[in-house]
Amino acid sequence: MKQNNTLIIAEAGINHNGKIDLALELINAAADCGADIIKFQTFKAEDLILKVTPKTKYQIKNTKSSGSQFKMLKALEMTDLMHEKIVNHCLKKNIEFLSSAFDINSLEYLVKLGIKRIKIPSGEITNLPYLEKAVSFRLPLIVSTGMSYLSEIDNTYKLLKSCGIKNDMITFLHCTSEYPAKLTSINLNAIKTISDYFKVSVGYSDHTVKNETSIAAVALGASIIEKHITLNKFLEGPDHKASANPVEFKKMVNSIRIVEKILGDTKKKVSTTEIENAKLVRKSIVASKFIKKGDIFTNQNLTTKRPGIGLSPMNWHEIIGKRAHKNYQIDEIINYED
C-alpha cells in the first residue's frame, strides 16, 4: 500500500456563501491543509427544487430562519464566471477542482469544465435519469450513500453495472446525512459491509464535528475521505457549523497521513530493527549444568536463555537424546552440529 493512498476531499460546498472571494480563500485553505481535491456544489435552484419546499430542520437551526429552501439555495448558486475563476485558481494552487452537480444541466456543464470524476450527491442516488446521464460520460463515479438502505445502494449499483460501468470506476461513500451527524448515527462498520457486498472501493463522507471519525474510517479501509471545510464556523449559512475550520482540517489530514504509514500493507513483515532485536530477545539452547563429552543431552542438563544467536529452542526435540561431541560449561550455547 503506497503512502498518501487516501484521497482527501475538502468539501467547500456552499460555504462560499455566494461570494467569489470567499470561494478562493477556501481553495487556499484546502490546498494549505494538504487536501487533494476541493469540491463545491453546482446547481440552478429552478432545476433543483420546488419553490414551496421548506428548509430542513438543520437548515432552519443553522441559518436561524425558517424561510424557503429555494430562496436560500438561489442565493448560493455559483455563476459561470465564479466557476471559471474557481477552476483557474485551483490550477494555480495545484489542487483538483470538483463539484457535485444537483441537476442534469449542471452535470453537463461540469463535464465541459473538465472535471476528472463525477461526485453524485446522496440525494441523487435514487434519481434514475440523473444517474443514467452521469454514467454516460464514462468518468470515475463517487457516489454518496446518505439516507440509503443497502437495497437502494444495490439498485444504483445494478443500474451502473447495466450501463457498462466496471467496479474499479465506482466508489461508494458511506455517509450519514445529518449536519452535524451524531456519533451514535455514524455506524462506520458499514464501510466493510458495503465493500464486502459490492466489491468496490468505499470511502467516507464525514459530517461529524470530530476528526476521529475520518481517521477511524481510514483505519477501516476508506479510500476517500470527504469533509466540509469552512473559514469560520460562525459564518451565516446552513453548513458552516458542521464543517472543520482550517486548523481542524489540517490536523485531520496530518493524522490520516500518519495512519496510512501505520497501516502499511497486508503482508506480515519483520523490520530491520526487529531482526537485530530478535538476536538479543529470543533464546538459544544452553547447558544448564556441566556436560561432559559423550553425555546425552536431556531435559535436566539443557535449558533456554537469551541471546538467540545459537541453536533455536524450536530444535529442542531434535537435540534431546543426542550425545555431546565436546565438554560444555554451564550457560554455554550448544552448537548446532551437536
Overview of the molecule:
This protein is α/β, with parallel strands linked by helices. The chain folds into two domains: 7-263, Aldolase class I (TIM Barrel, Alpha-Beta Barrel); 270-338, Type Iii Antifreeze Protein Isoform Hplc 12 (Alpha-Beta Complex), CATH 3.90.1210.10. The protein has 13 helices and ten strands. An eight-stranded parallel sheet has the order 3-2-1-8-7-6-5-4. Strands 9-10 form a two-stranded antiparallel sheet. The mean pLDDT is 95.
Number of domains: 2
**Fraction of residues in β-strands:** 15-25%
Instruction: Give the biggest beta sheet.
Output: 8 strands, parallel
Which word captures the global form? elongated
Q: Which sequence of SSEs, written as H and E, runs from N to C?
A: EHEHHHHEHEHEHEHEHEHHEEH
**CATH homology superfamily name of the largest domain:** Aldolase class I
CATH-scheme architecture of the largest domain: Alpha-Beta Barrel
Q: How many helices does DSSP assign? A: 13
CATH class of the largest domain: Alpha Beta
Q: Determine the mean pLDDT.
A: 95
Which class best fits the helix and strand makeup? alpha/beta
* Rg, Cα atoms, Å: 30 Å
Q: Which percent bin holds the helix content?
A: 25-40%
Give short descriptive properties of this protein.
338 residues, alpha/beta, TIM Barrel, Type Iii Antifreeze Protein Isoform Hplc 12, 2 domains, 8-stranded parallel beta sheet, two-stranded antiparallel ribbon, 13 helices, 37% helix, 15% strand
